[in-house]
Amino acid sequence: MQTELIHEARRQAEICNACRYCEGYCSVFPSLHAERAFSDGDITQLANLCHNCRGCYYACQYTAPHEFDLNLPKALAEVRRNSWECFAWPQPLARRFHTHGGTIALALVIGFAMLFLAIRAIGSSGGEGFYAVLSHNAMVAIFAPAFLLPLFSLAISLRRYWVEVGGKPVQIADVTAAFKRAGKMQDLAAGHAEGCNFEDEDRFSQARRHIHQAIMYGFLLCFASTSVATVMHYGFGMHAPYGFWSLPKLLGISGGVLLTMGCGAMVYLKQKSDRDLGDPMAWGGDIAFTLLLGFVGLSGLGLYALGSTAMMPALLAIHLGSVLTFFVLMPYTKMAHGFYRLAALIRDAQRKRDLMSAG
Amino acid sequence: MVPKSEAYDIAVIGGGNAALCAAMTAAEAGARVLILETAPKPYRGGNSRHTRNFRCMHRSPLGPLIEKYSEDEYLSDLMKVTGGKTDEHLARLAIRSSEECLTWMQEHGVRFQPSLSGTLSLARTNAFFMGGGKSLVNAYYRTAASLGVDVLYEAAVTHLELSGDQIEWVDYTFEGQSHRITPKAVIVASGGFQADTDWLTRAWGEPAKNFLIRGTPYNRGVVLADLLDQGVESVGDPTQCHAVAIDGRAPKFDGGIVTRLDCVPFSIVVNKDAERFYDEGEDVWPKRYAIWGRLVAAQPDQVGYVIIDAKSLNLFMPSVFPPYKADTLEELAGMMDLPADKLTGTVSKFNAACGDTTGFHPTELDGVTTSGLTPPKTNWARPITEPPFYGYSLRTGVTFTYLGFKVDDTAQCSTPDGKIKNLWAAGETMAGSILGQGYLAGFGMTIGTVFGRIAGREAAAYAN
Q: What is the DSSP string of B199-268?
C-alpha cells in the first residue's frame, strides 16, 4: 500500500472524528467515529465503505481554502484504488487498468481480434444461429475459463482484503444486511434519502444512485439471461436460438437496455462532476470501464436486432470480444469495486453486530 | 454582477443563518432581496458554517427531538447560564417561536439527524443539522436562489447612511470599486466584531491579543461600528462574548468545533505557574464549557494546561490535535514549558486531597470530590497517578461578541429618538439583546432563525 495515501486519509479521518457533523450521511462515519486511532486496515475498510457520494465534502467546514484542507471523498478514493491494486492477483496486470483507459481500449481490440481469429480458426461444426458462426463447444471452451479464472483471482484479492481489515467469520445475517444496503444503494442516498452531491455541487440528486442501479440491475439481468440459457441448454436440452418470448431473451433485452442506457448516462454524469472529489488518477480507467460495460450491452442489443442479417458474424465477434475483455479484466478494473463494496458492507455489518451484542 | 442602485426593496447585510432566514422570508413575501456577503463563496455563511444544532422548544417529540422541552424549562436553562442577565420578553419570544422553526427549516431545505455520538446529553433539547451548519447554509442559499434572492459575495458594506429615522443608502465595495444602493429597507445580520482584534483589545485590554477566534475571520463589526457611531441604540458590554477554552494549538481563525476539548472535568487545569485556579468538576461539561473561556482569559498569558492520566484518556471526545504524552509528570511539564517541580507539587497536593473514588461516574455528577483543597474539585476527582500522562494547552476561543443592536420584538432598531423605520437586525449582531452573559448551546442559531424570520417579515411588510 502507498503509505502517503494512507497517511493523508488518516490525517483527515482524525479531523472528522473530532467533528462528527457528517455522522448521519453514510456508513463511513459511524464506523469512523467508533475508533480513536486508525490502523492501516481501518483506513482501507473506511475507503471501501465510502461510495463517493460527496455529501461530506460539501457539508465540510474545513475544505480548502481552509488550512485543514479536507477532501475526504478524494482521500478515500485514492486509498480505495490503491487497495484494489495492491490486493489484485496477479499484481503486474492490476496496476495498468485502474489508471489507464487506453489499456482497456487496447484490451478490447485484442478481445475482438481473438474472437475473429477463433471464428476463422475454429468456426462452426454445423450449429444453428450464432453456433453456425462459432460452435457451442468453442464458446464454452473460451468463456468458461475467461469467467472462472477472474473469479478465482477476485477470490484471492478478497481474501487479502478480509485479512487486512480484520474480518471475522461471516454469518448469514451479515451478508443479508450488506445485500440490503447494496440493493437499495443506501450509501448513495445520504442520511435523508435524497441522493448524493455529484453533478451540481451541493444539490442533492438521485441521478447517480438511480443510474448506478440501472447499470447494476441491467448487468445482473444480462447475467441471469446467460445463466438461464445455460440451464436450458444443459438441463433441458433446449438449444439457442431462443424466441423473443423466451426467458433468456426477455432477461437479456431488458438487461441490455438498462446496461446500455445506464452506462451512457453515467459517463455523461461523470463529465459534469468535479474530478477532484474523486481519484483523479482513476478517471480514465473508470470512464473506459463504463464505456466497455455499456458497449457489452449495446453490442448485445445490436446482435439481437441484426442477428438475422449478413452483419451477424461480425457483430457476434464484436459482442463476444467485448464480453471476453470485460470478464478477463474484471479483477483489474472498476468492476472489482462491487466485490470490495460488498465485502466492506459485510465487515461493517459485523462491526454493528458486535456493537449491539456488546451494548 | 453589479446591481442597479434601485433594483432591490431590501438589502440584507451578512450571509449567515439569520441573513438567509430574513432574505427567504422577505422574498416569499414578494420583496426583491439582495444579500451582501463579505466573505468569498467558500467561506460564506459566517459562523453558521461552524454550527451543528439549534435549541428548540417542543411540547411533544418533534423531528429528531425526543420527549419534551417546555418554554419554562428552556427559559430556566437560559437564566442559569446568563445569571438572569437577559431580556425575558425577547427570550420568551425566541423560545416560543423556536418550536415552529423546525418545520419551517425543513421546508426550506434543512435536514436533521439524530444527536451525534458523544452528544447524547443534547438529544432532547437540540436538533442537529445533517452535515452541520455548512449544509444548512448550502440548503438556504439554494432555496434563496430559487426564490429569486440575489447574492453578492466579497461585497463589503462600508457605510449605512442614517438620516433622521431612516437609512438613506448603503455603500459597499465590490471587485475593487465602491457602489451605492438605495433599498427601501435594510436588515443587518453581519454578526459581532470578534474578528477585529484591535476592537477586542480596546474592550479587553492586551489579553485579547492572545484570544483565538473560533469562527469566521469576516465578522469585524464594520457595520456595527458604523451604525453605533451614528447613534443607533446598542445593548451589551463589549467584553461579553461566547468564549470557551479551546486547544491552544488551534488556528487564529476558523478552527471551529474540532479544537474544543471536553476533558476538563476529568482533569486538573493549571496556569503557566502550574497552579490550579478553578473547580474543574463543578458541573457536567455541556453546562460549564462556556465559562472556561473567561477563566483562562483571566490567567497569566491567557493560557491554561489540562493534565490527565491514562485512565481518563478515553472518557471524552477526541480532538483534532493529539495530546502531549509523557511517562512522567516532569517530562510532561517539560513538553509544555511548565515548571516541573511546581507541577508535581500541585498534582501531589491534588492527589492527596482525593478521597474514595469508587463512586466515579463519568457522565453524571458523582460527588467524587476532594477534601481540604482550594479550589476544590467537586466531582470526578480521581488522583492523577497512572502513566502515561497527557496534557493539552488551553486558550480562550471567542465565538461571538455580545455588544450589538438593541432591538424590539419586531427586530427593529432604534435611536434614542425612536424607531428607525427601515432598519432591522437579526442574529449575533443583536443577540446581546437576549444574552447578557454566558451561553446556552444551540441558542445562537435559535436567535438567528427566529429574529431573521421576524426581520424578513417586517422589512418586507414595510417595503411592500
A: HHHHHH-GGGGG-EE-S-TT---HHHHHHHHTT--EES-TT-EEEEEEETTS-SS--GGGGB---GGGSE
Show which residues on chain A lie within 8 Å of chain B, measured between beta carbons: 14-15, 17-25, 30, 33, 36, 55-56, 58-68, 190-192, 194, 202-203
CB nearest to A59's CB, from B43, B118, B131: B131
Q: pLDDT band for position B47 (50/70/90)? A: very high
| Contact with chain A for residue B131, Cβ under 8 A | yes
| Closest to B187 measured CA to CA, from B424, B402, B393 | B424
- Quickly count: other Cβ atoms within 10 Å of residue A105's Cβ: 15
Cβ atoms of residues B121 and B286 within 8 Å: yes
Are A99 and A281 spatial neighbours (Cβ–Cβ below 8 Å)? yes
Please, what is the Cα angle at B462 between B456 and B464, to 5 degrees? 95
* Cell, residue B419: 424607531
What was the ipTM of the complex prediction?
Answer: 0.95
Taking phi over 0 as left and psi of -120 to 50 as alpha, with beta for the rest, A185 belongs to left
Average pLDDT over chain A, rounded to whole? Answer: 94
CA distance B416 to B433: 16
State pLDDT tens for residues A52-99: 999 999 999 999 999 999 999 999 999 999 999 999 988 877 777 888
**Closest among A216, A281, A270 to A81, alpha carbons compared:** A281
In this complex, do B251 and A14 lie within 8 Å of one another by their Cβ atoms? no
Q: What is the residue-wise DSSP string for B32-47?
A: -EEEE-SS-GGGTTGG
Q: How far apart are CA A221 and CA A255, in angstroms?
A: 5
* pLDDT tens digits for range B20-40: 999 999 999 999 999 999 999
Q: Hey, are the CB atoms on A17 and B129 less than 8 Å from each other?
A: no
At A298, the amino acid letter reads L
Q: How far is B280 from chain A (nearest CA, A)?
A: 22
Task: Using a cut of 0.90, tell me whether the model's pTM lies above it.
Answer: yes
**Residue B13 near residue B223, CB atoms below 8 Å:** yes
pLDDT score, position A359: 62
Evaluate if residue B358 carries a pLDDT over 70.
yes
Spatial CA neighbour of B187 closest among B51, B409, B48, B15: B15
